[in-house]
Design a protein that fits this description.
Blueprint lengths: L1 H13 L2 H38 L4 H14 L1
């Protein structure tokens, strides 16, 4: 991990200030997109779980049903 960090730091030192700012903005955008994708995935999982519970699945049956649906997707 330290090698990766050292390499990244060396690459960034070689960039101009404008390039560093552009890179930082791109990094933040990618991070935000990743967080958004994770939030969407969590929301979809919660919706599936709620739908299954509404159909009567409970306890281990609910967990099994969620697992089966997740594997199918």
């Amino acid at each position: 991990m330290e090698f990766v960090t050292a390499t990244r730091d060396a690459e960034r030192a070689a960039l101009s200030e404008v390039e560093r700012r552009e890179q930082a903005a791109e990094d933040k955008l990618r991070e935000a997109e990743a967080r958004e994708a994770q939030a969407v995935a969590r929301e979809r999982a919660a919706i599936r779980r709620a739908a299954l519970a509404g159909l009567g699945a409970a306890s281990e049956d609910l967990d099994d049903a969620v697992l089966l649906i997740d594997r199918a997707l």
